[in-house]
Write a structure and sequence with these properties.
The protein is α/β, with parallel strands linked by helices and about 425 residues long. It has four domains: about 80 residues, Rossmann fold; about 170 residues, P-loop containing nucleotide triphosphate hydrolases (Rossmann fold, 3-Layer(aba) Sandwich); about 90 residues, Helicase, Ruva Protein, domain 3; about 60 residues, Arc Repressor Mutant, subunit A, CATH 1.10.10. It is about 45% helix and about 10% strand. The chain is built from 18 helices and 16 strands. The strands form six sheets. The protein has a five-stranded parallel β-sheet with strand order 7-10-13-6-14.
Length: about 425
């Protein structure tokens, strides 16, 4: 925190010295009311924020909290992007901060033998994550064996994991290697592990602890070298509390927790992934789709995506198969996306609107052109009036106003909230 009025030297000189030395710190200017313009100029020279005297405790806490959070996030992003840009990563598409954190955890966990417990909603890419860990690990050249514990009948699950000998049960006409033997030297991924039968969980716990197992119907123990990864779309602790998942197995597996974010929390990744799917499927189907209309982008970005990336993938394939053109319009979106807006709202987003005549640039900035004294309104006032006019024209619908203004809806919501709370 740097005051401008100091007894022995100027705060400006200290700011220049700090920047010249490249000291790793945020700089907050403290200034009296008459020096606000000076403080703004100093921010252009490298200061991060300013406080106006007298400084209130709440304003001080808010400023310090914001700067500390900014520094934390900046360090996180810097650590991740030191050597490369993470727009894609081992099958993942997306550069949002939540995904950058996922990539960082994979980088840190992959080289070890530690078990990784992947959690996330259905469709978030848990198997993609497990395969990324495998491919980033020293075992990348060995086998990656995925096993979905929720898709295999309970009475066959033990055989799927450990294999069986000939005659072990009805239909076992020959000896069979299980996933454990197939994954030897590599990685075994147990998806939806909370669906596993309790009796089998006990055998799995011993297998994880010792690396030894017996085939179903066999009498000889075999040993393997396996890296275990597991995943679930449920809350594992809730399953433990409900008695459906062994507590000792949970703590054996719960070494590194990796929580995949739902698609709705991945910011602009939605449009990046959708565009990638669009171009891929268009090439497969011999279509010419290249992009989404602004209205379609708004709907895609604000839909909740309960099925996450898997649902988005199916939606884009549906569009490409059933429609033609270079640009996906909002009317081409399948249910339930086309049900998020009424027919009237869809029409207003896709059909050119004819509001009141737009003022000339001279009128927009408020320059007097008659005998009045020449004056110019601030850009902030012009922007605020344009946004408020668009929202009023759309009957308070911020989503539609954002489409007409060709800006992100989050920008309008943020500015509108700032005006209403008096923070702007």
């Amino acid at each position: 925190m740097l005051d401008l009025k100091l007894p022995d030297m100027s705060g400006k000189d200290i700011l220049r010295w700090i920047k010249k030395q490249a000291l790793p710190c945020a700089i907050i200017i403290v200034t009296s009311h008459g020096s606000v313009n000076t403080a703004v100029k100093l921010m252009q020279q490298g200061a991060d924020d300013f406080l106006e005297k007298p400084v209130s405790a709440e304003r001080l806490k808010t400023t310090l909290t914001n700067q500390l959070e900014h520094i934390r996030l900046q360090h996180l992003v810097d650590d991740i992007t030191t050597n490369f840009n993470r727009n894609t990563y081992h099958g993942f598409i997306g550069s949002s901060l939540p995904m950058q954190n996922v990539y960082r955890i994979i980088d840190a966990a992959a080289p070890s033998r530690a078990t990784v417990f992947i959690t996330g909603e259905s469709g978030t890419g848990k198997e993609v994550c497990a395969e990324a860990i495998h491919n980033q690990s020293p075992r990348a050249q060995q086998a990656f064996i995925p096993l979905n514990c929720g898709a295999i009948p309970h009475d066959l699950m033990e055989s799927e994991i450990f294999g069986h000998v000939k005659g072990a049960f009805t239909g076992a006409s020959s000896e069979r290697k299980g996933a454990a033997a197939q994954a030897n030297g590599g990685t075994l991924f147990l998806d939806e592990i909370c669906e596993m039968d309790l009796d089998l969980q006990k055998k799995l716990l011993r297998f994880i602890q010792t690396g030894r197992y017996q085939k179903v119907g066999g009498s000889r123990e075999e040993s393997v070298d396996i890296r275990f990864l597991c995943a679930t779309n449920k809350d594992p602790l809730h399953e433990v509390a409900a008695g459906r998942f062994r507590e000792d197995l949970y703590y054996r597996l719960h070494v590194v927790l990796l929580a995949l974010p739902p698609l709705r929390e991945r910011e602009n990744d939605i449009l990046t992934i959708a565009t990638s799917f669009l171009k891929t499927y268009a090439q497969e189907e011999g279509k010419i789709f290249l992009q989404f209309s602004p209205a379609a982008e708004v709907v895609l970005r604000h839909y909740s995506w309960p099925g996450n990336v898997r649902q988005l993938q199916n939606v884009i394939r549906n569009i490409v198969v059933l429609h033609d053109g270079e640009e996906v319009s909002v009317t081409q979106l399948p249910p339930p996306l086309n049900e998020t807006l009424s027919d009237k709202e869809i029409q207003s987003l896709t059909v050119p609107l004819h509001p009141t005549p737009i003022a000339s640039p001279i009128e927009c900035v408020g320059i007097a052109t008659s005998g009045e004294e020449l004056s110019i309104r601030s850009l902030e006032d012009v922007e605020r009036e344009a946004i408020q006019h668009a929202i009023e024209f759309c009957n308070g619908n911020v989503l539609k106003a954002a489409v007409l203004l060709k800006v992100s809806p989050s920008t309008l919501y943020r500015k509108k909230q700032a005006w209403e709370t008096g923070e702007a």
